[in-house]
Structures are given as structure tokens and as C-alpha cells.
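Hello again, I could really use a second opinion on something today. For a while now I've been wondering how a particular protein folds. Please have a think about how the structure follows from the sequence. Here's the protein in full, and shout if anything looks odd to you:

***
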Amino acid sequence: MLPEVDIILHNAYIEFRTLRTQVTPCCLEVDFMSVKIIANEPIVRAVDAPVSNASSDNALILACQKGDAKAFDLLMKRHKRTLFAMLNRLAPDWSGMHDDMVQEAMIRIFRGIKSLRNPGAFKGWMNQTVTNLFYDELRKKPKFAITSIDAPIPNSDGNESSGMDIADFNNQPDELLERKEIMSEVNIAISQLPDSFKKVIVLREFHGLAYDEIARLTSSEVGTVKSRLCRARLKVQASLNAQRCA
């Protein structure tokens, strides 16, 4: 017999001896037998149920937070198509990168899932993770096409020249310093904007995205994007004027 059961039976017997002077023998017998039945039942301890395809998202997430690799694999298989759909919405022109970006998104989800306090907010949190990944990849891309000056260029007669001759239009040191100061002022002005204004002006002015692309990324209407962009530019201009007058 298990030690825990021995203790329960011993306590039940003591309780039985105590109750003898308080109730009738009939009641004693019934009460004691019910205690014996309870005591003889197996002691069940709470254990984590194994995860499976039938497990809910919440159960899988809680298991992931405890380091269950199988739970994470099931969770990602369940939401892999959602990840692709998110990327297709954010970056339809990057279809050749979607596989790698999904893998990177999964890595970020795996590393950050323990910090998710509310399993019910998983989909929103996953969407934000993918959006942040998109912005990171967007920053890596040059705004303008790059052409090598060493690449041969065809002439009008069909022959190729040795390369491209480009005039030196580099700014002078004083011009570079002035440009650096202006950019610093602009960055300060943008950093003070509300988040909704900041997103549209960065995507438009720094990454050259079209209005409809910005609308898709920010889940807004094109008219809303144009309005926010206009107000953002006015606020930046006002901030620059204030900095120069200070």
C-alpha cells in the first residue's frame, strides 16, 4: 500500500475513534466506510497531458513555453500557411524570399514565445513578428538600383567600352557637415512624430513605397495614408523651423 494511503487510513481511524462519542454506531459505520473507500482510491497527481494534433493553440503554446519541441513543431505546421499569407500580403514581390523569411520568422517565434504572457494573443503577436521581419529586410534593400562602373557599356557601333566615366560630384567637407546636421535634425523631428505618422513618412520618404503599398502595410486606406503623410511632413517642417530658430 502507498505511504500516502496509510496516512489517510490512520487519520480516518483517529477520526473514527473521535466521532464514536458524538454520533450513533450506524453513522459511524457509514462515515468510516466512506473514508475507507476514499482512502483506497488511487492518488492521482496532476501531470501535463501530451500534445497532439488535437491540442488547442493555447495548450501548444504553454507546452512550447516549457521547452516542448514537439509542441512547437505542431504549432508551426498549423500556422505555416498563415505565415506565408502574411508575407504575401506584406511583400508580394518578394516571393523568392518567402521560404527563407518564413524560416527566420519561425526562429524568432521560437526565441520569443516564452515572453508571450497571453496565449490567446498569439496570432496578433505572430503578425507583429512577421511585420518586424519585413521591416528589417526592407532596410537591407537599397532604395535605388546599383550599377557597377566597371561593367562594359555597349557603344553605338555595337562594341563595348571598357567602363563608365562618371564625374566626381562629391560634396566638399563643409557641405558634408551641413548635410549631416540637416539629417540629424530630420531624424530628431521624425522621432517625435506619433507612431502612425512616423511609419508612413519613413516608408514613403526613406524607402520610396507607393501609397497603396503603405496602405497595405499599415492596414489603412490610401486616403488615410496621404492625409497622415501630409500632416507628418507639416509637423517635421515645423520641428525643423523650431530647431533652427532655437
Notes: The two ends are 86 Å apart (CA to CA). Residues 1-47 have pLDDT under 50 and may be disordered. Strands lie at 153-154, 160-161.
